[in-house]
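TASK: fixed-backbone design
INPUT:
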């Protein structure tokens, strides 16, 4: 599935479909991943798109990532509180809303914008990526990719989503989280990683963002080299 256009002596240029965090969208996440795009230039192309669910304004009580200007239309992948159309990663609930619509949106993006080698997710987007990996492992042909990068990910606390974590997930995965993340604490990302077989772990000293320094670059590239050999 790799794209054969690459500089001499380097691996193929890979394509990653990117799923933004809650209260973000294609535009804002593209801006927030600018440093990552820069350090992966020539090795990986990151393609962003927006979640289908529009988040009502304001929603400062939920655990979100900030949406930027109002015209950016903050969006999400599912609501843990369907009554208020809001989401909180810490909230233990029975019923959620919007996940199936998001799965259809991701499937459409993979089909129309693909092919993709991997899938990248941040925060709520990373939580959704884990579910996509579980569906891929079950043989769901809508989700064609080879590996996953999950940044500040977590396991959904909705009982509706328990089915996604019943079996170990064999999709190659890189799990990235901040040691001082107060939105999604590191133990939540560790819990999610424990549901994957042989997960690669990358920690950083910062908070709730996508890290992209020279130190992280080495790990990102090593992971990409491993999954594409």
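OUTPUT:
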């Amino acid at each position: 599935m790799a794209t054969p256009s690459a500089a001499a002596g380097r691996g193929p240029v890979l394509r990653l479909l990117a799923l933004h965090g809650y209260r973000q969208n294609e535009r804002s996440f593209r801006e927030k991943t600018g440093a990552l795009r820069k350090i992966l230039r020539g090795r990986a192309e990151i393609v962003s798109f927006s979640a289908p669910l529009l988040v009502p304004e304001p929603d400062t009580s939920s655990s979100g990532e900030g949406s930027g200007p109002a015209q950016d239309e903050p969006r999400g992948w599912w609501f843990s509180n369907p009554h208020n159309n809001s989401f909180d990663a810490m909230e233990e609930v029975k019923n959620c809303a919007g996940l199936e619509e998001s799965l259809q949106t991701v499937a459409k993006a993979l089909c129309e914008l693909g092919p993709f080698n991997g899938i990248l997710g941040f925060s709520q987007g990373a939580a959704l990526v884990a579910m996509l990996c579980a569906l891929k492992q079950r043989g769901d042909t809508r989700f064609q990719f080879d590996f996953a990068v999950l940044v500040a990910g977590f396991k959904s606390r909705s009982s509706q989503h328990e089915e996604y974590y019943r079996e170990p997930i064999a999709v190659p995965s890189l799990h990235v989280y901040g040691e001082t993340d107060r939105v999604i604490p590191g133990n939540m990302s560790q819990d999610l990683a424990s549901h994957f077989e042989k997960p690669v772990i990358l920690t950083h000293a910062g908070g709730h963002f996508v890290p992209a320094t020279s130190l992280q670059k080495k790990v990102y590239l090593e992971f990409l080299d491993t999954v594409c050999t």
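COMMENT: Helices lie at 26-32, 34-39, 99-113, 124-137, 186-193, 214-227.
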